[in-house]
Amino acid sequence: MSKSWKESLKSRRYEPHKHCIVCGRAIPLGQDFCSTECKESYTKADKSKSRKSTIQFVVIAVVMVVMILLLPKLAGA
Ligand SMILES: [Zn+2]
To answer: Given the DSSP bridges, would you call strands 18-19 and 26-27 parallel, antiparallel or unpaired?
Structure first.
């Protein structure tokens, strides 16, 4: 009796599964989230992250353009 209990525990432990990338809960393979709530929170975080990197890119581009415009003036003076 105790043997079958152990076997069921073992098979359960090695059952293929993934973990929700938001909260870490065990989920079946082929899924990324345990619930639509986690999916929404993940997509929201992803959007804000990409927006932040876009702002950083624009700032770097502006600084580079200003440097390119100012460098000849500084060299000439
Ligand atoms: Zn989750």
So the answer is: antiparallel
